[in-house]
Input
Amino acid sequence: MNKPERPNSYRSLPDADGHFGLFGGRYVAETLMPLILDLEKAYREAKADPAFKAQMDDLMKNFVGRPSPLYFAERLTGHFGGAKIYLKREELNHTGAHKINNCIGQILLAQRMGKKRIIAETGAGQHGVATATVAARFGLECVIFMGETDIERQKPNVFRMNLLGARVVPVQSGARTLKDAMNEALRDWVTNVDSTYYLIGTVAGPHPYPELVRDFQSVIGIETREQMLAAEGRLPDTLVACVGGGSNAIGLFHPFLDDESVAMTAVEAAGRGIETGQHAASISAGSLGVLHGNRTYLLQDDDGQITEAHSISAGLDYPGVGPEHGYLNDVGRVQYVSATDREALDAFQLCCQLEGIIPALESSHALAHVAKVAPALPRDHLIVVNLSGRGDKDIFTVADALGAKI
Amino acid sequence: MTTTPGRIERRFAELRAEGRAAFVSFITAGDPNLEQSEAILAGLPGAGVDIIELGMPFTDPMADGPAIQAAGLRALASGQTLRKTLGMVERFRGTDNDTPIVLMGYYNPIYKYGVDAFLSDAVQAGVDGLIVVDLPAEEDAELCEPAVAAGIRFIRLLTPTTDDKRLERVIANCSGFLYYVSVTGITGAAQGAQDAVGAARKRFAAKSDLPVVVGFGIRTADAVAEIAAVADGAVVGSAIVDRIAKNLGPSGGLTDGGVRDVLGFVADLASGVRRAEQPLAAGGAR
Ligand SMILES: Cc1ncc(COP(=O)(O)O)c(C=O)c1O
Output
């Protein structure tokens, strides 16, 4: 494929129709079209309204607990003996992951739009918990779609959602994971158009979702920038984040996209190994297609049928990726690599033992990449890893993988 | 739009002369397998079907209910592909050169096939129209415009959320007929009320000369008759697909007599358009 031209700014997209170059768009049923046009309008109005920003800032500070620290990981740094490693501590947010940042923004939009019922899809359950949390906080009905396979491997989060008053609907189609949950959420939305707000959990879906989710997550990169300047007096050299749909990665990256000195690496889930076909690496090993409202890289067969993703981490177990990531890959601004289940498990344990932090299995993929590159980098090379979530939800999966009984 | 009349236009002209609405049936290509699906397809015109919608199976049918989801999975499990679906149409044309066939599905398999290659093979096979659920007017450059240029009608779904503001844009590049989804929801949902359907029909007639066909949730001959009284056509999908499912044997294929049972059911549904009041008898805008 031809490499798209280098733009003046990487931060000016999407265009008015929601395209990031070839990627993105609005591939939805006609029933939903008026809804996403309304959402776009509501979002533009909110962005221009100082009251919206004030409300958002207040909730981010007092409800979520922001800013999240940028923490110097001294022992990981010493262990690898190379680059200086900082962790952006999104796992310390209320509900334990970056997902809440986006949920705060969208619940305020839903409220502005007068919606009474919130639906969402979830994989790891982190987005489901974050959605249930904001729905409870604002007194809105909440229904979460979750694949049966994921319900099985993320039981603590299912119970959390129930405690928060959400109804968790088990999805039985396909491989019963995140993709199928998203299909079912879209089916619900087409049916309940008047009452319902669809709170998408990542930078996927039809325009304007990839844009607005990115904007709400950009707080991660904006804070990191200030914090790194305060700590080191300069910008970081490399940013590393895991990618499922890509919201924690784009949130960290986006504010730095036009800083040429800052390299960025996004880590996809290689599952049992790319060569086995059992992975979730849609950029590294997928091809262009259209699913869930946008054009992007997908795991699919020659007939355009979507194939099942695999990852030990439910949050990365999705056969697509946000359209802006497809674009950033094609223009060469962000490097996309992958880490296997095994590598993530190793990094998970290392982080527990050396830093006293139990990371989410998703975030462990980013740590796994750091383990590969940090040793060879000079000691003054500053790496920021997005610690997108905490791993308490994953202890059963990890115990299983390690052959431990709890 | 001025195009040379194709099978769809000729069919509606005939029906107008007969003074009745069209009976439109939906089945998923390759459900439950290529051979039996082809046998059903071949029998549809004889069972009274005026226009055939043939579903192109997709792993992620976001706008379909359980019945059509299951049909798609049966077809895919038996090895159906878009190429095989075009093959079915081509063989059908060997014996029937009059019944319009509209392919219905989602964009990704077509995109993967390649839009140009797909359109040229579809024309070759004798496909008359396309309904692609996840291509709204905003994405017309993708497939709608090239399809129309290739002589294939692009039929769009209109829904209760399609307000007057959008209507013009949605109808602008539409050809063949308008497909009114009478409820907000997925296939197999409840049927829209007859008077609401009639009102919508009038709203569209003010903007377009295209026939209006109504679908989603129509399950019986009586319901077909009811809709046929206020529209130019009635579509039945999930109910037929459910009938296929009811005839499945332990091997996954239809049991003996299954094809006949499905076609008998279709014939009963089709009788609905033949006993309906003449649609828009008072001279609606045609
Ligand atoms: C902790 C954590 N990190 C990352 C992800 C992946 O999502 P995204 O790529 O949108 O950040 C998830 C998704 O559930 C998650 O829970």
Summary: The first helix of chain A runs from residue 33 to 47.
